[in-house]
Amino acid sequence: MMLPNGGGVWRRAERRMRWIEFLALYLLMPVALFYTLPPRGILPVLWVAGLAGWFLLRADPGPDPLPRRLYSRRRELGVILLRFAVVAVLLTAALWLHRPGWLFRFPRSSPRFWLLVMGMYPLISVLPQGVLYRQLFERRYAPLFSSPRASWMIGSLVFGFAHLPFGNLWAVGFPFLGGLLFLRTYRRTGSLALSCIEHGLYGDLLFTIGWGVYLFHGGTQAFLAS
Questions:
Q1: Which of 98, 131, 150, 180 fits a disulfide with 145 by CB distance 3.0 to 4.6 angstroms?
Q2: For 140-151, b where at least 16 C-beta lie within 10 A, e where not — what string?
Q3: What is the Cα–Cα distance from 175 to 182, expressed in whole angstroms?
Q4: Which helix (H) or strand (E) holds 72?
Q5: CA separation for the pair 36, 30 (Å, rounded)
């Protein structure tokens, strides 16, 4: 026998469960990793979390929360590339003021490792982050917040907070600012591919010009800073 307002009770229970998921995945996990993660553990944890997010999406596809908008992939890519070019100049100038000796040290001192990072980073790091912090976040957790603007800000904040295990504020601040762009692109286009292309461009840029020293973990970070 159905209880009165059974649907409302179920919806409240589901909402509580999603809040628990959100807090565990986006807040508790980075804190736990900050205190317990061995130097080589970030990518395996990211792969497992990304795979778990993919299964959650497959198990409960639900309605697509993003509006169906017609857009030109070529035009959007052009906007992304133009914005990227402007930001690249600004970030290069900022590093020249902050630590001029770091400029392009990575590709100059270790070109093979740099090429490996350029090719592998978008595949093994950006894609699972896109699933977790854009596709999964939008589908399951953005509706928990009061408005699209609030969920956009929260989504960007938790993306920055995910980089807490790197152990410095730069590693949290850069992804937060990037998250504002990547989540906005995903919302505007509904394309995980475009948002991942944008994410990959900025990540490779940071590693190339020298800011990436803050975004490596453990021994790799020490090697690049030395």
A1: 150
A2: bbbeeeeeeeeb
A3: 10
A4: none
A5: 10
Classify the C-alpha dihedral 97-102-106-108 as positive or negative: positive
Q: Which of 81, 24, 54 is nearest to 139 (CA)?
A: 54
DSSP 164: G
User: For 76-124, what is each residue's pLDDT tens digit?
Assistant: 899 999 999 999 999 999 999 999 999 999 999 989 989 998 999 999 9
CA distance 88 to 105: 16
What residue has token string 């949290």? 172
Return the SS3 of 5: coil
Check whether 226 has a pLDDT greater than 60: no
Which ranges constitute the DSSP H helices of 60-104? 73-98
Radius of gyration of the chain (CA): 19
Q: What is the value of pTM for the model shown?
A: 0.86
66 against 213, higher pLDDT? 213
Cβ neighbours, 10 Å, residue 24: 11
Interior CA angle at 135 toward 134 and 139, to 5°?
110
How far is Cα 224 from Cα 189, in angstroms, rounded to an integer?
36
* Residue 67, φ and ψ in degrees, nearest 5: -65, 145
